[in-house]
Write a structure and sequence with these properties.
4 helices, alpha+beta, Glutaredoxin
Length: about 160
Amino acid sequence: MADYTLNVGDKAPLDLQVAVYPEAKFKLDDLSGQWVIVYFYPKDNTSGCTTESCEFRDALPDFGAANAAIVGVSRDSVKSHAGFTEKQSLNFPLISDEDETFCKAFDVIQEKMNYGKTYMGIERSTFIINPDGVVVETWRKVRVPEHVAKVLARLQALQA
């Protein structure tokens, strides 16, 4: 396991203001008093990212019943997020983190390898933040199949 600067038990970066589709500006603090699921994904309109986003979309009523908001994050532009949201009928905000401020605060910019080349990119990750703003669960190097169901089950267990 890699050493990360943001871990379970740490306060989430609630006051970082970032661009988000569709609201324009957003801070996690805007969701204070709720549970928040923040998931980071590499790129709009790619197969794994589309599958993950659509699974969160489909599960939003279950997360809502648990007083949890969902927020997706990638380095794509607000314009890209607009197209992705409309094409996939997404029903939650997507943060546009083109300068990687939000990604770096959650320590998800990691060295990756693809086709023998190394580069810095978003490590697919998910965080559960409790109503007090504390990170209570993390998943790093997420594999998409069944991930959303695992996040929902863990959220429900934390609330039990």
